[in-house]
């Protein structure tokens, strides 16, 4: 029997029927996964943490991204720096994944020792002609936007990170997000491909049926609905939504809070992102079960609680910032069928647990939502690997952003010669 010739990565994505899902091989094949990591996680800007991960000088956060590893440090000058986690001697890892506090970065193999600014301070037995200035740690291009630490592992980092920075910096300014602390962290390994994790996040078609906690405060209409054949009750609810949305947007803008949607998502984007100040249901204050603030000490010097939800998407993250707390989530692919989903709940740096906030109240919406999404991603990944799977049609009303992500994914592969 002749060997079956597998379609290449590029052939698979170019063969996607417009308005339909991706072929199953794009979610399950190891060669596709390896290319995805190389292109989308090593050559694009990705979110890898928040400033509160390294709150004090000497604090370190180590993150693995495929075969690469980086060290995020806050140095003695209170500057956040990012280094490749590779000793300049024989390549040993300097730090294991996770957080720690150090005075210096010391290689556990031969004790080459580096300052937090990356310079090599000590290397024993190397002789008089050894020049330590040529053996500093390798820097990683880093951009901090609000509290978000973005890095690009490629020396030719996409320049349109400046567009994201210019858009989000004024939106985050009133919140003083660098003056925050992590109240809670959650790590989930989802048994599904990273693209399915992002696709699931890009639509709310599924929200009403699967996210009762989230939809207590979140209005899925913000991300599309089918206006056809609506009942009188649904039409009335839609009218109420439109009136409230317009009223909130006007009120926010009058108080100087930027609200309109900005999208940089299509094929001409490199650093893909979307942002908008979203209306919150009920009391309109926060993404909690009672829609009121979970932390009574608001961010920065804010006095107004009903500031909606400043959301931000990138191709590996999603963020929700309310007046009282923020939820920042980013993903790291671990394998064709494994994705790490890491979420951090931020509150004002001076907020006191059990005085200003209760962790359970603060986290119950997104802890539940993340676990529900984990299940949805996993059953979808399993289904895409079934021989019976054929890509289905997207809803043009509720899954337009999923289709947009598929187009962008194809364009970026093509730009890198895949």
From TrEMBL:
**Which Gene3D superfamilies does the record match to this protein?**
Naphthalene 1,2-dioxygenase Alpha Subunit, Chain A, domain 1 (3.90.380.10), Rieske [2Fe-2S] iron-sulphur domain (2.102.10.10)
What SUPFAM superfamilies does its record include?
Bet v1-like, ISP domain
Q: Which PROSITE patterns does this entry report, sorted A to Z?
A: RIESKE
Q: Where in this chain does the record put each Rieske domain?
A: 47-151
Q: Which family does it belong to?
A: Belongs to the bacterial ring-hydroxylating dioxygenase alpha subunit family.
Q: Which UniProt keywords apply?
A: 2Fe-2S, Iron, Iron-sulfur, Metal-binding, Oxidoreductase
* UniProt name for this protein: Rieske (2Fe-2S) domain-containing protein
Q: Which domain of life is it from?
A: Bacteria
Cofactor(s) recorded in Swiss-Prot or TrEMBL: Fe cation
Concerning Pfam families, the annotation shows: Rieske (PF00355), Ring_hydroxyl_A (PF00848)
